[in-house]
UniProtKB/TrEMBL annotation, chains A, B:
Signal peptide: none annotated. This is AcrR family transcriptional regulator. It comes from Streptomyces calvus. The lineage of its organism: Bacteria, Bacillati, Actinomycetota, Actinomycetes, Kitasatosporales. PROSITE patterns: HTH_TETR_2. Residues 31-91 form the HTH tetR-type domain.
Length: 238, 238
DNA sequence: CTCTATTCTCGTACACCGTACGGAAATGAA
DNA sequence: TTCATTTCCGTACGGTGTACGAGAATAGAG
């Protein structure tokens, strides 16, 4: 871990993790499964947030001793990786591609957003580098297929997908924070009072005007769609 | 904290934090300062990453006892908030606005990216909701001024700025993760081998093709500029 | 069957974390 | 001087991730 952690580099060997060679037939038979442990961790994160996912809570949830988990994951970081891939199964595509790559890409982004809203811990979990697991790769495969008509080269296609994911994650993180803040009226009021006080100090005329002429409130869906459309319509294949 | 933490809502009262009424003249005189403590925490994060910022390390750095820090910040979460605002001082604008709001917005985004690359912990720190402190507000003021020619209403201008920040943070987080991963050649090679193995299984033809026809490698700067330009050029003032 | 190699289970323990508590020290006002 | 107020900080508590190693279970070898 010495130096890697500084920038959030993955500490997991993807070959070891995703290409395990089917366990040997010797020794005690496992009482649990990676699948069950991962599912329990996901349920916990969905219900109580990422910070509720502790090795002790997960172990309790599956009825195992804490240290037993370490037969299924080398560390907690890897469990997070397993969780991300686990929920990616929900990203399965049903609709076929339309051939209009812009429309197909927008569909991909909307799928991702709905997915992240369903699992609000995802944007945070994705913010550190992950090696894509099998279900994530299945979705990536679909996105690459959507990009086929662009004629972009491999690196460019991968880059577009990464950028799009980062954009969606950033947007959803902001969206979730916003809605969480407004769910506490007292906090929201305190913030409004604070901003009003700042605007009243005379040194922030632009802010003062923006607050005094707010316009009609924007719905998250509309905002997302507008920015997404602008981003994707602006893409070209040069 | 009961329920707020689930979605990462701010737990800090901005009025209390940013509009303190100048300390009373009674009691022992402070040996340290919020400024010094914040600066030490920032130095620590810059040098060793966010996870090196512990109350004990920060206290040691400024030569204080651990619990003394709590005379300057109610909790660690707030210290993070102070850190974010502290470094925002570097975002001071020198160039005047050109009047071309697209160009000015692009300058804003490039400033933000350089800023986040200088403080790689920023994207992660920004991913939870923050109430803007005074220096952050100064920068926001500038961004709003840049958006003035658009004629957008207040909420829309604020939304554009928030989206832009989220976009830059997402991009930089990805960029940093990427460069961190490639800084460890062994890890990068393991990942390449893993992806090659997946591509070779026949069920990922698009991935296989993308990897076999990579095209010329993309530099982070060029990629950022391209996506940014597309996003901003796509914005209009309808 | 016994023996042994292998694997999983998990209690205990350790270092580290954020921070509640409360006494000691320092200061300005009365 | 006395006292209210503020800062300083040692101690302690409940939490975290996980290293270690003893014990239990299983499958193959003899």
């Amino acid at each position: 871990m010495s130096d890697d952690a500084r920038s959030g580099a993955a500490g997991v060997d993807p070959e070891q993790l995703w290409l395990r060679p089917a366990k040997p037939r010797r020794g005690r038979r496992p009482s649990f499964s990676r699948e069950a442990i991962t599912a329990a961790a996901v349920a916990l994160a969905d219900a109580e947030g990422l910070e509720a996912v502790t090795m002790r809570r997960v172990a309790a949830e599956v009825g195992a001793g804490v240290m037993s988990l370490y037969s299924y994951t080398p560390d907690k970081e890897t469990l997070l990786e397993l969780m991300v891939d686990h929920v990616s199964a929900e990203l399965e595509i049903t609709d076929p591609l339309s051939g209009d790559w812009r429309a197909d890409l927008k569909t991909v982004a909307h799928l991702q957003r709905a997915h992240m809203l369903r699992h609000p811990w995802l944007p945070a979990a994705l913010s550190t580098r992950r090696v894509p697991g099998p279900r994530t790769l299945a979705f990536l495969e679909h996105a690459l297929a959507a990009l086929r008509p662009t004629g972009l080269d491999g690196a460019a296609k991968l880059e577009v997908f990464a950028q799009l994911t980062a954009f969606v994650a950033g947007h959803v993180a902001h969206e979730l924070a916003q809605s969480a803040a407004s769910r506490s009226p007292e906090r929201a009021a305190a913030e409004a009072r604070y901003l009003a006080a700042v605007a009243a100090d005379g040194r922030h005329p632009e802010l003062a005007e923006a607050l005094s002429a707010p316009g009609r409130p924007l719905t998250p869906d509309a905002t997302f769609t507008r920015f997404l459309n602008r981003l994707i319509d602006g893409l070209d294949t040069d």
